Amino acid sequence: MERSGEVWLTSQELADRLKIKVCTLDKWACNGIGPHFIKAGRVRRYPVGDVLVIDPVEEAWLTSEELANRLKIKVVTLNKWACAGFGPRFIKSNRIRRYPLSDIAEWEQALLAEALLRRQSPWDDLLPQQLSDLQSVADRLAEALMNIANPSLRGSVAS
Asked: Residue 5 needs a FRET pair 20 to 30 A away by CA distance; which of 19, 78, 115, 123 works?
């Protein structure tokens, strides 16, 4: 619907855009929360300008089920994480959690960076002197193995 240059959405269009049920919009309207609307007869109309305040840049949102599928975990695990304050940020509407896709991506990047830090090679902690000592031990071991395998080459392997 378009009136005086402004675009208006029906309850169903807004519910589809926000991935919520129309009854949730109805409850918000009864409680005086949610986006601004006008009522024409029995139908509510929502100006797109007010909707963009709620849903900036029409960002994609995932439900708990969608996020669980993406992460290959159970929804119960997501619920436990949310109670413990772990996991991506979310909003809760009518007992349903919604996760902004941009926050999910940031959270996944942070987890990846943390995992990479934890997976440092045990060799990273060794000092260069210790590494050179290990290299000389490896060289002497290689020479000893060559001597055992071929006694005629004794002392000819360069170290």
From this structure: 19
Q: How far, in Å, CA of 111 to CA of 131, rounded?
A: 31
Full-prediction pTM beyond 0.70? no
Which residues of the chain fall below pLDDT 70? 1-5, 50-59, 120-134, 151-159
**CATH code linked to domain 2-56:** 1.10.10
Distances (CA, A) of 28 to 21, 31, 32, 35: 11, 5, 6, 8
Contact 5, 41 (CB under 8 A): no
Residues 6+ apart with CB under 8 A from 87: 78, 81, 107
Per-domain residue ranges of the chain: 2-56, 61-118, 122-153
